[in-house]
Specification:
Layout (H helix, E strand, L loop, with lengths): L1 H34 L5 E7 L16 E7 L6 H12 L2 H9 L4 E6 L5 E5 L12
Parallel strand pairs: 2-3
Antiparallel strand pairs: 1-2, 3-4
Length: 131
Amino acid sequence: MWHKIMVISEWFGEMGERYKLVKDFNRAGKNAYIAGFAPTLLEAKITSGETSNRHAFSKWMGGGFRIKALSGKALSNSELIEVGRVVLDNDALVRKLISLGWDTLEVHDNTGFNGCKWKLMDFSNLGGILK
């Protein structure tokens, strides 16, 4: 019985860490936008992700890390890719996302229908150990 309680406790602790990362990302995005360092406001949330991107640590119903660019206009594909590269070029952030159960990075704007998705494991630089 104690083992089950420990498993539940670990699950809630990990979920708390996931929500903290989203909250910290949103706070940093807001501060960068207010200070003029970022041309658009970025907001992150948890989505279901892409099932084909699943890995050993993927969360069942929360494998997607979606960033919405609140630009007020439809962004081009190259602009969405530029936003995605901010995350994908940061090895430590990609590894943190993977370790917390995310498998898909999604970038969308807030007005158009364009969006981009990446499989996070492809950008983890783990040398194929977990693929």
